[in-house]
Design a protein that fits this description.
By secondary structure, the protein is α+β, with helices and mostly antiparallel strands. The chain folds into two domains: 2-201 and 378-383, Ribosomal Protein S5, domain 2 (2-Layer Sandwich), CATH 3.30.230; 209-375, Alpha-Beta Plaits (2-Layer Sandwich), CATH 3.30.70.890. Helices cover 42% and strands 23% of the residues. The protein contains eleven helices and twelve strands. Strands 1, 2, 3, 4, 5, 6, 7 and 12 form an eight-stranded mixed sheet that branches. Strand 9 and strand 10 (341-347) form a beta hairpin. The longest helix has 27 residues, at 263-289. It is globular. It starts with a helix and ends with a strand. The chain binds alpha-D-galactopyranose. Alpha-D-galactopyranose binds next to helix 5.
Length: 385
């Protein structure tokens, strides 16, 4: 699959632009194992890069025009490099445009324009960061072709800046960090306060476990209101508690938060505080007892998002509960919420029972047919050819 998409990206580039690309770069989507809505609160996250990728075939131009095409849209989007702004007409091209704009800004190089053609097998709208995969594939390519010299942390910031300023989604830094820093069979344990990271052996295969993605097909967009309102509630909660971010608080501060905050803000804050602790507990449990022991933490994370942060939907809850009833050790919604995917960690021999049961339950409830597949942890963004 990977090899054929690399060749296809190069061939489709040539068909579109009439000459061969300089190279093809790739970046993976990510799944977040645990640590949700903690990144923009300067907290902990523990995602991994998955074995689904975006491929960007690219060549520099002599003028300053940027042209981007893709296999998922017939439109060729173009803009002069120095005129990139937030604009609804950009559509998905806001991701490659945004990252070009951000790399130029952060590195201060005077990059030239470029042509770019994108192929991807990261499902869109499933909470697997198809957008960060585009940003990171184009990001590593331009970093190399422009000699911009940015390290991976700064490239992750470029992706986040692109989302915040050019796409208009107030997202954190987790997705780009996972896509850039991932390693085969390892999770990326990231402290979003200082961007220090450690890769940690997940050991799923050795323990006879699989991580299933249950894509509910309920579409979500983080440029819409729900994500931003959760972020605003966290910022208001931190301000009321007199700290610069919720990362400065821990469970011992909950009684004071309860006294000081209105009920909704308190529950938003409690989610972030307890979720940070769950990330630390997951990393420790994984190291000390192995992946079979982290299930209860995953499920507790789901309950917190459902009840305190209120970002789950019926389809996600159904996926999680059904997976748990049919043998998953742990399950939770993953990503920003309001749709997208749930994950379930389960013994290999229970995978088909879980998948069939979730499909049957969705059908019985009149939900759209979910897409269910296993993912493994793979390497981060790189040049392919
Ligand atoms: C989206 C954002 C991330 C993060 C998650 C929630 O994926 O892009 O920055 O905030 O939601 O954990």
């Amino acid at each position: 699959m990977t090899d054929s998409l690399i060749r296809k990206a190069a061939a489709d580039f040539e068909a579109k632009f009439g000459y061969a690309p300089t190279g093809v770069w790739s970046a993976p989507g990510r799944v977040n194992l645990i640590g949700e809505h903690t990144d923009y609160n300067q907290g902990y996250v523990f995602p991994f890069a998955i074995n689904r990728h975006t491929f960007a075939a690219i060549a520099l131009r002599e003028d300053n025009l940027v042209r981007v095409g893709s296999s998922f849209s017939p439109t060729l989007h173009e803009v002069p490099l120095d005129s990139i702004t937030r604009d609804d007409k950009n559509d998905w091209a806001a991701y490659p445009f945004g990252v070009a704009w951000a790399i130029a800004k952060l590195s201060e190089v005077a990059g030239s324009g470029f042509d770019c053609y994108i192929e991807s097998d990261v499902p869109v709208g499933a909470g697997l960061s198809s957008s960060a995969a585009i940003e990171c594939a184009v990001g590593v390519a331009l970093n190399e072709l422009w000699n911009a010299g940015l390290d991976k942390k700064t490239l992750a910031k470029a992706g986040q800046l692109a989302e915040n300023e050019i796409v208009g989604a107030p997202t954190g830094i987790m997705d780009q960090s996972a896509s850039l820093l991932g390693e085969a069979d390892h999770g990326v344990f990231l402290d979003c306060r200082n961007l220090e990271s450690q890769v940690i052996d997940l050991g799923f295969a050795k323990a006879g476990l699989e991580l299933l993605i249950i894509d509910t097909k309920v579409a979500h967009r983080h440029a819409d209101g729900g994500y931003a309102s959760r972020r605003a509630a966290c910022e208001a909660g931190a301000a009321a508690m007199g700290v610069s971010s919720l990362r400065e608080l821990n469970e011992s501060n909950l009684p004071k938060a309860h006294d000081l905050l209105d009920n909704t803000t308190f529950r938003r804050v409690r989610h972030v505080i307890t979720e940070n602790q769950r990330v630390l507990d997951t990393v420790r449990t994984l190291r000390e007892q192995g992946p079979g022991a982290i299930g209860a933490l995953l499920y507790a994370s789901h309950e917190s998002m459902r009840d305190d942060f209120e970002i789950s939907v019926d389809e996600l809850d159904t996926a999680v509960e059904t997976a748990m009833r049919h043998g998953a050790f742990g399950a939770r919604m993953t990503g920003g919420g309001f749709g997208g995917a749930a994950i379930a960690l389960a013994p290999t021999e229970r995978i088909s029972e879980i998948s069939l049961s979730v499909i049957a339950e969705f059908e019985a409830l009149g939900f759209a047919k979910p897409e269910i597949f296993a993912v493994s942890a793979g390497p981060g963004a790189r040049r392919e050819i």
